[in-house]
Amino acid sequence: MTGVSGPERSGAGWSGGAGISATDIAAALGQPSPTPAQQRVIEAPPEPALVVAGAGSGKTETMSGRVVWLVANGHVRRDEILGLTFTRKAAGELAERIAHRLAVIDEYGRRGLLPHLPEIVADGSLRRVDEAVPGRQRELVRAHVLDELAAHRGTGWDPVTPRAAEDLMIRPRVSTYNAFADGIVREHAARIGRDPDVAMLSQAASWMLAREVVLRSDLPELENIDFALGTVIDAVQRLAGDALDHRVDLDRAEHIARDQALAFEPYRGNADVEKAAVNLLSLPTLTRLVRDYIAEKQRRGVLDFADQVGGAYDIVESAPDVRAELREQHRVVLLDEYQDTSVIQTRFLAELFRDSAVMAVGDPHQSIYGWRGASADNLYAFSRTFSSTAAAQTYSLMTSWRNDRGILGIANRVLEPLQRPGLDVPPLEPRPGAGEGTVTIEYPFTVDEEASAVAEWFAERRAAHDARSAGESPGAKPHTGAILFRSKRHMQTFAAALAARGIPHRILGLGGLLATPEVVDVVSTLRVVHDPTAGSALIRLLTGPRFGVGVADMAALYDLGRTLSERDPAMAPLPEEVRARLRSSRGADEAVSIIDAVDVVRAVRDDYRLLESITPDGRARVRAAGEMLERLRRASSQPIPELIRLVELELRLDIELAANETRGPARVAATQLRAFADEVRAFLAADERGSIGSLLAWLDKAESTDELMPRPEPPEAGVVQLLTIHGSKGLEWDAVAVVRLVIDELPSRVSDTSGWFGLGVVPFALRGDRDALPRFEWDPVEAMGDEADPVKRQKLAQASLSGGATKANPRGGAIKRFKDAYRTYQQQEERRLAYVAVTRARTDLLLSGAHWAGQKSPRTPSPYLVEAIEVQGLDEVEAVDPDDNPYDGPGSTLRWPLDPLGARREVVSAAAAAVDDAARRGTAEPSVELARLLAERAARQRGTDADAPTRVPASRFKDYVTDFSGTLSSIVRPMPERPYRQTRLGTLFHAWVEQRSELVGVGSRPDEALWELDEDEIASEPAQATVETREGAAATADAADLAALQATFERSEWGGLQPIAVEIEIDFALGAGLPSSEVAGSHIVICKLDAVYRRADRGGRIEIVDWKTGKAPRTADEREERMLQLALYRLAYHRRFDVPLEDIDVALYYVADDLIIRGDRVYSEEELFQRWSAARAAR
Fold first, then answer.
1. Residue 779 domain flag
2. Which residues, including other chains, have CB under 8 Å from residue 229's CB and lie 6 or more apart?
3. Which backbone phi and psi does 334 adopt, to 5 degrees?
4. For residue 668, what is the domain's CATH number?
5. Average pLDDT for residues 588-604, to the nearest whole number?
6. Domain of life, per the record (predicted)?
7. Boundaries of domain holding 1064
8. Range 909-921 average pLDDT
9. How many domains are contained in the chain?
10. Which of 242, 332, 697, 854 could make an SS bond with 762 (beta carbons 3.0 to 4.6 A apart)?
11. What angle do CA 153, 157, 162 make, to 5 degrees?
């Protein structure tokens, strides 16, 4: 390690400055004094520097200390400092910490005390400040002490002098890497021919777009790619991302792949060579799809984040003036989490800040995001990347301020095999006064016993923490804990064990949530609603706790489905020839639809012959399920989050979870469902046109991969969080259990060692981090040597390529050597994952595994667990009999359907009996809280007593007459309306029709949107809008859809007609003209007529047309309700222009569907008034 040291060298390399040391600044701030290693980093000279910062080593505190030291000494202005990190959360925390410290330093600066700071610290003048209670009291004491010091030293401090604008407005810039690049592109987009206002694609949106491109492709070469659809989509998305991150020339990649496949051609008799050749030859097809993906992004006006970084790189590379301006603006640069930067980010930053005061902070052993573009080699290559003159200074921060000693011992042992030349990474050191901590190791027989042991361990840790809080450490923070997994596979098993112990817990991340029972039920219901072939999902619902259909009835229901598959729509049997062909076809099983069978049970009478094998109770349960599904299908056009909430209510999950004592209090019982809803909203925010189908496709993707990180969430007090190791980085808990430390889980099995011979992988020679990747080396000419026999020459070349390990060649052929090297490369990231997991624990660490978890042979302990056992001095884990598999027996006998209460049956039954007994004896009295809840429910059931508003929009008349109380409640307690896209599109279309007619309507009022927000337009909105991320894409989609509506209108019967009026408003008092009505109780109906025509082809009759851009009504009742609005329009026109009602025609035109609905029935004013009065009286 190199670098300056000691306060006497403070500011070395900087010109001028106040000469204040980092230790004096820390004392002035009331912060602990930095360690010598931290001081060297804080006071580093203005040249490229790399800081190797171990886990929990206080790098954020050190970076903020460097910023404050630079500003306090006057080396740079505060707005000349740039800090970059990866997440908005991290950027916000760093910016807040810097701002707080600069505010305190400004207190000294405004009083002229900074030049005197060393003397002030040395003579103890700040002792009173340090002794004050932190918070407001310390702030007041500090202000008083500093006022005294300013007066004593005669600095000329005037308390009434206002603060300088620089102190108030100018501050260091702290941003994310992507946001910084995005700002450059938006300001200079014209230099690279790009629109500055484009939307960014999230990971979900990018995958959905790639899926759409693949599904839409008609490339015949796709038939030669023998992989599942999801694998091809993943390959396209990965190839597109790598091409951006490494600035790959796709034509050159194709050329390299073809040449290598050609070289392999004579040796394809070997399976490994054949597989590699096929994958290489498929690369041109995948690059075609990548080009289609890129073109589709351009068409939609959207970008990946790598596009923005690449665009920023293009700008600074080609525009020296922009580069010079940015270097002048940012004289000091701090790069946080540098080990997680991608190749394109590194190149961009190096092009911009090479040879400047740039300091990268990172830990090569925490580089765990290789699957999303991060390069573990970036730290090792920092010096040659950012310094063109001499080697960059290297510093290290290895004192852990987080972990106790025992935990550090395990972490350092895990790190030993990762040491490599080129960068000195010392072991982690304990902080002064660090405790010993506890490290526990468990390796029971089965994974269920492992989960139980983990739950017991957390119960003990929580109890010990509570005891300390009540005794020697009163007022201590609530306990925090986490279980960390390499994959989500067994997450639900451990959650169930925590629930059995009554320990509050929460699963983080979409992948883990998809295994929780309540989320599985919701997703299964969505599948059934969307897909009529989703029989397995329906079986889960029918046999689950909501309906509890028995096994005999399920068998009969399947038989009914098979019978229906052999009948025509009229229920007549198909000809025997057709049935025979169906039975012999590959799709015979798919032809049986249990969903159709449920619909038939719901639709026919009990005495129908085909239902005789289903019990009466079974028919009732199946019928209830069918009715529920029909209700959900009718509601499927609602926004998806609302549909999901409806599914929860239909399945009664809210009640079930609130009543489940193992889920904790009712307020947290549905936490998993709420977290799932949040994940769905995040997906919909990325895809404005998100449908149930696209959501289910994304959920399938999330369920099949462990590479989706949970949204960052801080530790939750009193709750054990379950998440993947990838999602835990940057977090810490009091107690952490790292589970499933067995070979093939942690470390995970390396499933693909093909390297660049895999499907859709960029040739390693074209990657920016190629120096860190294994190289494929094969020379068939050298292998053949001087052999003249063609057959022997072929065998020698074949062996040199695909041969296995032999005595003569112990490392095997070129492919085996390459695969072994690539396997080792991937296993290094597994070890880094283990290191990250271990260092999340502050005081208590549990490492666990188990011999059996459902597989055919016992699991072997992970090498990381073996190393921990060695450090702890424990006995090694003894092997077990491979034939003693507890999961490989004759099975157990269960009662069907399963008891939904399970092991809770006894407890719940006893509680229910106690309630029944109290009710019979009449001694049950509700608690104060329950009494209030019951009163609230009674008030809600009574409905509102408010009167309907005087002004009633015609578009809401149908709502009043169908649900007067509900409509009135929505007005009395209005909910904020989202900016529905369909409503926006309708507004654009109406404006176009008005402009096209060359007539002038009545204009718009501020409240017009409230009057004319039609239900059919709202219902078709698929997702919530996220304006800031989707404005560009939304505008493009709006333009395309508006053009389609315009073309349809031009072809309609009104396309060639000229209206006599457009967008006219007529208000009238409903019932005011009737002799029996009371004028005082009448209401003003607001009618806004879209267009009025005088139809010459109908004898000059008046026709009122209402344009609709939403979904058309599907049932006769819905049509009648829609026509009530037109009936009011007819009455309004009659009242205003005295045209007989019989001479006025009305029509609804659903433009998107090119559907015309005409109302032949003429409602009189009396009829309309009676419907209003009846609805009002019945509320």
1. yes
2. 214, 215
3. -120, 125
4. 1.10.486.10
5. 75
6. Bacteria
7. 981-1002+1035-1178
8. 85
9. 5
10. 242
11. 160
